[in-house]
Each structure stands twice: as structure tokens, then as C-alpha cells.
Amino acid sequence: MNQYKFIYGTCLLLLALQLVGCSSMLPRARSESSPFSSFDEARQAIEGLVPMHSDVAALTRLGITPVQQPNTAILTHADVVRRFIPSSLLKREDLDPGVLACLEARDACRGWEITAARIKKERTGNFWADFTNFSRRSETTGWRFNALILLINDVVVYRAWGGQPRVSDIEVQTNPLGPLQDVGPAMVIDR
Known about the structure:
Blueprint lengths: L1 H19 L7 E5 L6 H9 L8 H6 L10 E4 L1 H8 L12 H9 L3 E16 L2 H5 L3 E18 L2 E20 L17
Antiparallel strand pairs: 1-3, 2-3, 3-4, 4-5
């Protein structure tokens, strides 16, 4: 009797899956670590900072503070030194005047390293091939942004930005054995 209930329940589940729309049942993930809505908005905010003129109040109005901006690292003077003087290849005259001023300011110098992103990961393709582990297709889209701001006594002396304005990755994983693909090593019996 229990066997018939199981078969009946399985059939109902399969019918429901077919009626719902299979692709909508595939997993999705979204990562938002930025108050900025786009890469360009983040870029414009950083480019709007004027070295030797913009101050912490201007940064706060833009929402760029370690408290308001998630994933912002506060750099010490030692961190700034390690970042800009990593080897003997870089000469003092090669550095930006704002970076030089920050290095010379010692403890009055600090930096903010901002990392922002909006990433969406979605499994697409055939639901049944994905569900049975024969084939999985994942699409990752969005953007990633990073910026470095150096300050001396709450005045911006240097700013730079970079990142990926457009992220678009497609990953396809094919398993010819489907659900049995990962069983191999688990089936080894110790004697």
C-alpha cells in the first residue's frame, strides 16, 4: 500500500513540476554589495572627488564612508606604503603627487579601499537535465567596481578606480553519467 502512495505522490509531483514551468524551478543567486545602482554611478562618484579639495563631508554626501559603504577597508599609513612602494622598480618621481603627500604625512595619512558589486548568478537550460545532473548551465552577469581614496586630515589627496563594468560568464558542466557521475569513489568497499 505504501508503495502505491509513493508512486502516486511522485506522479503528482512530476505533473506539478511540468505545469509550473520547469526553468523557473532552477536555482538563482544575487549578490549586491553596493549602494550604487550601476558601475557608471560608482565611477562618477569617485571621479567627482577633487584631490586637495574634496573632504570627508563630500564623501559622506555621496554615501562613500566606511560606515555607509559596505566592503570598505580602512588602510593605515603602513598599508599605503606597502601598496605604493612594493619594489625597487617604482621610483619616487613615478608616484602621483597626492600619493607622495600621503606617504610624507605619515600617521595623518589613511586610505579607503572600496569594493562594490552587483552580481546575479542563474542556472539556465533544461530543468530535467539539470535536476538529474546530466548537464548544468550557469550564467553570471553584473558588474564589479573597486576604488582607492587617500586622505590627509580628512581631505582627499588621491583617488583612483577600476573594475569590471560588465561581467558575463557562462559555465556549462556536462556529466555523461548523470546522477551516477559522483558515485564512483563512494562505492569503493573496504575489505
